[in-house]
């Protein structure tokens, strides 16, 4: 069953201008990971330092594999270096019966 992951990010104010290139590099690896169905980045209209990354995955297993990879030295992204606070993650399964 497809999974949507919402990753809520709050950027440090001093990286607002450089964050897009950092995030583009990180998200290129995410998009290339097995099971990725696509990614969208939403910017808060009232606060450009507040972003939500919407990730779509083929299954919870694919998303779990991606999260496990990001926790390894090979998958480490450096995202934490541009964040003002730890990210928040929510994951949802698509309900096709509703």
Secondary-structure map:
Layout lengths: L2 E8 L8 H14 L3 E9 L2 E11 L2 H11 L17 E6 L5
Antiparallel strand pairs: 1-3, 1-4, 2-3
Describe the structure.
The chain has 98 residues and is of the alpha+beta class. It has one domain: 2-Layer Sandwich (Alpha-Beta Plaits). 26% of the residues lie in helices and 35% in strands. The chain has two helices and four strands. The chain has a four-stranded antiparallel sheet. Strand 2 and strand 3 form a beta hairpin. It starts with a strand and ends in a 5-residue tail after the last strand. The model has no long low-confidence stretch (mean pLDDT 95).
Short descriptors:
alpha+beta; 4 strands; 26% helix; 98 residues; Alpha-Beta Plaits; 4-stranded antiparallel sheet; single chain; 2 helices
Structural class: alpha+beta
- The separation of the N and C termini measures 14 Å
In the sheet with the most strands, the strands line up as 2-3-1-4
Average pLDDT works out at 95
Q: What is CATH's topology name?
A: Alpha-Beta Plaits
Radius of gyration: 14 Å
CATH class: Alpha Beta
Beta strands, count: 4
- Contiguous helical run count: 2
Report the sheet-strand fraction: 25-35%
Main sheet characteristics = 4 strands, antiparallel
The CATH architecture category equals 2-Layer Sandwich
Q: Runs with pLDDT <50, length 5+? A: none
Overall tally of domains: 1
Along the chain, the helix and strand elements come as EHEEHE
Shape summary: globular
What is the helix fraction of residues, given as a range?
25-40%
Nutshell version of this structure?
This protein has helices at 19-32, 60-70; strands at 3-10, 36-44, 47-57, 88-93.
